[in-house]
Amino acid sequence: MIKNIVLDMGNVCCKWDVDYISSKLTTNKEDQEFLIKHLFQSPQWIQLDKGSISLKEAKQQLLESVSKEKRELIEYGFEHWFDYFEQFDEMEEFIKEYKQKGYHFYLLSNCSLQFNQYYQTKSIFQHLEGLYISAAHQKIKPNLDIFEDFLKEYHLQANECFFVDDLKENVESAKKVGMQGLVYQGNVQELKQLIK
């Protein structure tokens, strides 16, 4: 019996597309590619998700890793990328509809502590009962320990949880701890049918 729906953030709740985000941060094509490589694909980005580096340290390292001419671009990208991390209204409507049916909703995401800077600006997160961010717990998907810790944190039974993520390896890990799951490709109707 499914009681809890556990959602990933990127490409489930919000649109995670570095090409799109970079195009909003700068109109210069070369600068867009630079941002993708030196910010979103940087080692610091992964360390931030893991919670193994502070925001301050990451920013300092990112700025030191590029030429002086590019520091303003990297700093701007670091401080403003989430302004263009746009939520999916269809998913928000699904959450609202299914909350009324008695389901409980949680977030389980690989994400840095920058989440605290933007989650209140996105209405989709206001409907969730728990917000579990990898950096805050220093655990990361697809490792099994993040799923086990999440269940413990919110006193949930794995067999009562349905996990939704856009990455197959994360869904497979959720299933290993006893959850049901879906590799989500943007089809809310498919999700509704599986939860019935």
Description of the structure:
The chain is an alpha/beta fold. It has eleven helices and five strands. A five-stranded parallel β-sheet has the order 3-2-1-4-5, sandwiched between helices. β4 (161-165), α10 and β5 form a beta-alpha-beta unit. α2 packs across α5, α3 (43-50) packs antiparallel against α4 (55-64) and α4 runs antiparallel to α5. The relative contact order is 0.17.
List the keywords.
50% helix; 11 helices; globular; alpha/beta; 196 residues
Q: Count of DSSP E strands?
A: 5
Secondary-structure-based class equals alpha/beta
- Quote the distance from N terminus to C terminus: 10 Å
Radius of gyration: 17 Å
Strand coverage percent: 5-15%
The averaged pLDDT comes out at 97
Approximately how much helix is present in the residues?
Answer: 40-55%
Element-by-element helix/strand order: EHHHHHHEHEHHEHEH
Could you list the spans in which at least 5 consecutive residues all have pLDDT below 50? none
Which of globular, elongated, flat, extended, rod-shaped describes the shape?
globular
In brief:
With 196 residues, the chain is α/β, with parallel strands linked by helices.
Question: Topology, pairings included?
Answer:
Layout: E1 4-7, H1 18-25, H2 29-40, H3 43-50, H4 55-64, H5 68-80, H6 89-100, E2 104-109, H7 115-118, E3 130-133, H8 134-137, H9 144-153, E4 161-165, H10 168-176, E5 180-183, H11 188-195
Parallel strand pairs: 1-2, 1-4, 2-3, 4-5
Helix pairs in contact: 1-2, 2-5, 3-4, 4-5
